From TrEMBL, chain B:
<feature type="transmembrane region" description="Helical">
    <location>
        <begin position="303"/>
        <end position="324"/>
    </location>
</feature>
<dbReference type="GO" id="GO:0005886">
    <property type="term" value="C:plasma membrane"/>
</dbReference>
<dbReference type="Pfam" id="PF02653">
    <property type="entry name" value="BPD_transp_2"/>
</dbReference>
<comment type="similarity">
    <text>Belongs to the binding-protein-dependent transport system permease family. LivHM subfamily.</text>
</comment>
<keyword id="KW-1133">Transmembrane helix</keyword>
Automatic annotation (TrEMBL), chain C:
<dbReference type="GO" id="GO:0005886">
    <property type="term" value="C:plasma membrane"/>
</dbReference>
<keyword id="KW-0813">Transport</keyword>
<dbReference type="Pfam" id="PF12399">
    <property type="entry name" value="BCA_ABC_TP_C"/>
</dbReference>
<dbReference type="InterPro" id="IPR003439">
    <property type="entry name" value="ABC_transporter-like_ATP-bd"/>
</dbReference>
<dbReference type="InterPro" id="IPR051120">
    <property type="entry name" value="ABC_AA/LPS_Transport"/>
</dbReference>
From TrEMBL, chain D:
<dbReference type="GO" id="GO:0015807">
    <property type="term" value="P:L-amino acid transport"/>
</dbReference>
<dbReference type="InterPro" id="IPR052156">
    <property type="entry name" value="BCAA_Transport_ATP-bd_LivF"/>
</dbReference>
<protein>
    <submittedName>
        <fullName>ABC transporter ATP-binding protein</fullName>
    </submittedName>
</protein>
<dbReference type="GO" id="GO:0005524">
    <property type="term" value="F:ATP binding"/>
</dbReference>
<dbReference type="InterPro" id="IPR027417">
    <property type="entry name" value="P-loop_NTPase"/>
</dbReference>
Automatic annotation (TrEMBL), chain E:
<keyword id="KW-0812">Transmembrane</keyword>
<feature type="transmembrane region" description="Helical">
    <location>
        <begin position="100"/>
        <end position="122"/>
    </location>
</feature>
<feature type="transmembrane region" description="Helical">
    <location>
        <begin position="318"/>
        <end position="337"/>
    </location>
</feature>
<feature type="transmembrane region" description="Helical">
    <location>
        <begin position="227"/>
        <end position="246"/>
    </location>
</feature>
<dbReference type="InterPro" id="IPR043428">
    <property type="entry name" value="LivM-like"/>
</dbReference>
Amino acid sequence: SDSAGSGSDSVETVTIGSVHPLSGSLAGVGGLMNDGAKMAVEDINAAGGIESLGGAQLELLDGDSQGEAQVGQSEAQRLISDGAVALVGTYQSDVTQNVASVAERSDVPFVIDVAVDDKILEQGYKNTFRIQPDASSMGQAGAQALVAMGEETGEPIDSAAYIHIEGAFGDSVFAAFKEEAEKQGITITKEITYSGSNFSDATTQVSEALAGNPDIIAVTGYYPDNLLVAKAVGSMANDTKAVFGIASGAFDDTSFPAAAGDAGTEVLSANYHYSATSDRAADIRARFEEKYGKPMETASMLSYQAVEVIAEGLEESGSDDPEELRDAIAGLSLEDPLLAFDGPIEFGEDGQNENATVIVMQVLDGKVEQVFPQEFATAELVFPTGSGN
Amino acid sequence: MAITEAPAAPAADKRNPLTAGGTRITLTIGGIAVVGLALVYLLGDREPALITQYLVSGLLLGGVYALVSLGLTLIFGVLGIVNFAQGAMLTLSMYLVYVLQSSLGLNLYVAVVLTIPLLFGFGWLVQSMLLNRLTEDASHDRPLLVTLGLSLLIVNVLLMIFGGRPKSVDAPVSGSIEILGALADTQRIIAFGGAVLVAAALTLVLRKTSMGLAIRAVAANGTGASLVGVNVRRVYAMTFGLGAASVAVAGGLITPFTTLVPTAGEQFTTLAFVIVVLGGLGSIPGALVGGVFIGVLQTVGSLYLPGSGSLILVFGIFVLILFLRPQGLFGAKQ
Amino acid sequence: MSLLTLDGVSKSFGGLKALGETTLEIPEHEFFGIIGPNGAGKTTLFSVLAGQLAPSSGQMMFDGVDITGWSADKTAAQGLVRTFQLMRPFESMTVLENVTIASHNKFRSPHKARDHAAAVVERVGLDSYMYAMSGTLPTAGLKRLELARALALEPRMILLDEVLAGLVPTERAPIIDLLRSIHADGVTVMFVEHIMAAVMALSERLLVMHEGRELALGLPEEVIANQQVIDAYLGEDYS
Amino acid sequence: MILELDAVSAGYRRLEILHELTLGVQEGEIVSIIGANGAGKTTTLRAVAGLISTSKGSISFKGEPVHNTRPDKLVRSGLVHVSQDRALFGNLQVLENLTMGAYTQPRNTIASSLEQVFDLFPILKERRAQRADTMSGGQQQMLAIGRALMARPACLTLDEPSIGLAPNLVAQVLDAITRIRDTGVTVLIVEQNASQALAISDRAYVMESGAIVLEGTGSELADSAEVRKAYLGM
Amino acid sequence: MTATDAPAAPQAPKLRPANGAKRQYTFLLIVIAALFFVPYILPDSAQPVAVRTLIFAIMAVGWNLMSGFGGMFSFGHAVFFGVGAYTDAYLLTAFGVSPWLSMIIGAVLAAGVGLTIAYFCLRYKLAGSYFALATFAFAQMFYLLSQNLGFLNKTDGINVPLLPEESWAMLQFDQDSKFYFWIPLVILGLAMAVTIYFAHSRAGQFAQAIRDDATAAESLGIKVMKYRLITVAMSCAITAVAGAYYSQYYLFVGPEQAFGIHVSTDAIIPAVIGGIGTIWGPLIGAAVVGPLSELIAHLLRNPPEFLEFLQGTSGLDVAVYAALLIVIVIFLPKGIYGTIRERMRK
Ligand SMILES: Nc1ncnc2c1ncn2[C@@H]1O[C@H](COP(=O)(O)OP(=O)(O)OP(=O)(O)O)[C@@H](O)[C@H]1O
Ligand SMILES: Nc1ncnc2c1ncn2[C@@H]1O[C@H](COP(=O)(O)OP(=O)(O)OP(=O)(O)O)[C@@H](O)[C@H]1O
Ligand SMILES: [Mg+2]
Ligand SMILES: [Mg+2]
């Protein structure tokens, strides 16, 4: 690809490629993410574009991975040869993997908005960055949050049963959780796995989890299956203190409270999340919802953020040369993140955002509220929850 | 229709395979199941209460599987079509229920009843517009590709209309009851009942109506049927329509406990094939028993093989049965 | 010395004994006819001999070799070849290709196999259909094709299952002549037929089967005079 | 004429087999078609039965044009075909096959039709609970004819009903056909056993390469030197 | 008695003299030579699609051997593709084995797996849809197994590490290198050559005879199981090479990419669309199907004015693709090549 810019400051448009699953089973979230990225581009352009490039306008080219790794890869290649100087994407770990290799070979920076697998950044690729926390740090942070919440409410947690999806995502979140939890004195009474591709009833998994009388049931997985888990817990007599999602695809989704009904009440979720206490985030969400008629989920906010990261990189480097852009992103410190993070967005050696972290949400009054830590809280934590009945 | 090369036994099953009860087979499967479960209870090294919960959940899951498979067994058994759009049709019916409920504010079960004729019509159209010619050519690769295309088409059109965000419906009943200390979700019990009802209704249609007679005749010999005055194309369309109508019941009854996205039904397609072949092509009781059998096998199996492990077991048993009893549990030998 | 010997050979399908214990000796170069009512077990006998079906009991010797339980391809390679009552052409192939398939088993060289096949096709009188797709042949052509494929294997003994059925009388004559010439070449022939004129003209010995068993065996004239044969098979017109 | 073919052309895909073929059958007749293998006899009956479409010409039944009409509609109007391969419902019982034959008839007539068929072929009554595909060749042929009769045809077309049958059965079947005709059914029959067929026929056609070359009464043709030489092998 | 005019004599059957394999080899050479220049014509952005199309074509050629020429309809070719893909990725990452060698090892392994599966399916006389479903079930088992096997990294899949330099031995080039196109092109050429050779060989003729009528073939002395298995082994081996190349080109393989249902259908669709059981069918089919979804997506991204309103509707491109697929299957019953050939013959 020879479309990389010259580095002069007479550029008119800078192209960013966005690869997300716009069709297939993940089309729902993929579409939201694409819209998030689009809106970021529009906002930046409306605010005068990239100043250091003489007010250059951003342009977003979108690619549809269809949820398949090889399609994602060829879409990424297409976008780069059509002039993209940076990529954002892609939601799925395997697709992200392939896009990361394209980015590396083409020397184009790639900012991962969502993709959880630790492994992606373990390849030693220098062009790939990730904003969200990775799987193992979420597991670890989840355990820490749990302990802290227990201490704060005076309801110490001694044991947990863990239900998670099979595969890299679930396994690594669980492993990190377990390590940290055991360090903190929490026993894991049971690890129960299920297959994500064929899961239409969670009663057995939940009853197995409840059999050990754990203080809490921890859950990691995607939307449909976690919804099933919540419903199953809701239907069974138990005296656990809480259902606690860690990197759960469902529990902090805006559609979850309605879908789960009573079973969703007071369910907790430790996850990366848009910052509900940030006015900037609130403004973006409001405009998003008005524009697209759909609530802006966290994943979508991450795509927005990823475009901002690239824009900031362009601003810093004053060049649309991908390699200079890459260096600028690597050295970035982006204040006022839209996500509830522990500080500015800064990438470590491996490209991971070092200040990425999870916060705890809870379903209260049919809404997802941020409850922990205190600095991000929008509502009062209820713990132990009513799920023990 | 696909026929194995296995030599035929004389007068194997004098009854008609579409509705044959297969008492002996039922007893055999029942026996194996009871012995297997007894072994699990005695030697399984798990708490009995837990096993009971798995068993009950497995039975109820089996009911769902059976519901989805009942329509397929007609389509596969009579028309010989490997219908890859089964899962997509299931999703379609779920969205129809959703639309009826959210736009007209109908009670869920009323919506389900209204969906039945809609899907019947859909099935009728699909068969008469897309598949009839291929069915007559007795080709099996082309219908397979057409239904594959159809499945993609349905899923993506749903995506275009409804987007990919999860939807949900309100159910008038909820909660659960206790059976032998195990918890059984009311909606799933209703779905199970639905499966039995649909099976009974289909059996009645096949046994007692002249259309049922015609369907059986077409299944036995298409040309022969046309030579006694059966409008074969109409029977094809009717059969696909009936298959689709059963799918409507399935979709409607599982909607309350399923996350409604355009790909929601997909996970059932594969297992439905396993169940239909297991039960015997075109056998209504076979689909029912096969569904329950697979549901229990998968669920109880997951006590020892968690996650996808129990599915390997399911496919393993499937292949074994294909080898040892290719006509399926309830199929008469060809 | 007998070419083919059956000793107590039988075949059952489930509970049905399609072929009862049969003992039979066919000397080299005999022209041996079989008749019998529908369902008597004639085709079953052929299938057992040719290896399509494994016998339920008994022993079969061909050319001094025990062929009991042999598969069809092995039996054919040994020189015992059958044709089918319901014709089974390889429909995606031309007539010549059909026959070449068989002659490939005799000749490794593709050219030799082809030339041999072409000669056989001519011999059975299908030369004008040489390159026609076999699926479009009329009945008479298919019957000849069945014969041609069997002949291309240069068998020692050939089992013909109703090669004349479905042929109009005028079509029968050339096939009957062909069978005679095959026999004259030294091939032992065993055939099943319902067309009595041909049966009488061709058979040196005639076996009548009934419900899987031998009802009569002997010279054709003797056999058709047998009252039991008339009752079970021929009907009053022949009495 | 209850059945009339006028300059009918038909065939398979692009291959035309029948070339402007013309023939007719009077009510209450047995008419047979004889001819060489591949002459197109089966094709003719299949065109009449609606199993293949015609490209030219017309077929009329009871005065109505019926070419390119679906087989099931023809059955309803009384034109019933027994195909060469019998097309029985193999995994259904004999009785079910027969009942199915009366698919187009009012239910209350089934019993009396059955009685007639059983009269004609007592063996079917005896074996009514047997699966069709386990019956012997001749029995299956009787079942096929019996099933056709259940539809109470005005006109019955039969394709080689005696093929592969033992000599005594050939006689039986042909005899049955005469008796069927005697009940008022018109019969159009294709037969290899030309001499026996001609013996029971009122009229007959000789077919060659997809067209009619000779027609006459059964005995005329049976006596014709030309026919004897060409088709009877005498 | 009336005599009608004797009709015209039956037309003599059309002759179809043997057309040796030579003409087909020549044609193949011309086609491959012409395709050689494709990377010079295509824009960079289309090259990945071209490579993907070639991979489809190789799979389809492999599938067609077993299912088209051999008549054993496989609905589980993902098994062989996946075995090839994983063999490559695993041997490379675990032992640093060169992909060229892995292709051969993968092919041999896949042939072995194919032989085992086919042997049992054939032994138990599965045919038609039953055979298809059995192979499908095996593919599902492999899929589930690969998700559960630790040495294959479970659901994580295996990454092929990126090399700093181009390397022929390790089959890695610059992202836009034309070799990424030419190598599968040569593999495709070889696979086609194998098909042509096989179709005309004694073994291939036997296989086709068995497909048409196994009982008749056996009674003519053909060892049915042997020739069926030969066909299966070749088919699986070719498909595995496609899989190995996949791992090298995409540098990543996981259970879904290796054994997913869509992999099996990717092998079937081009062959059926092009013409099943024909030599050129899979090639033509792949050439049509491979770029189809891309073309539709392209059209919808930059729609002509009257279609402007469709822009950005997610799912539309796949829906259009699906509709076209249905139409092609229904209206070209013998596939594109099969239909053309039939027209020409008549
Ligand atoms: N594969 C099979 N399974 C069960 N029964 C069979 C099978 N093949 C043949 N039979 C039965 O075995 C008996 C003998 O059949 P066979 O085909 O040998 O008769 P045949 O003497 O050749 O009759 P025809 O003159 O009608 O050809 C029949 O009753 C038939 O129904
Ligand atoms: N399905 C078909 N496709 C192509 N050609 C066919 C088909 N069926 C028959 N034919 C051809 O049509 C011609 C007439 O066949 P038809 O069966 O009508 O003859 P027939 O007079 O009944 O002869 P037979 O005595 O052999 O039954 C033959 O040349 C035959 O090869
Ligand atoms: Mg016979
Ligand atoms: Mg005929």
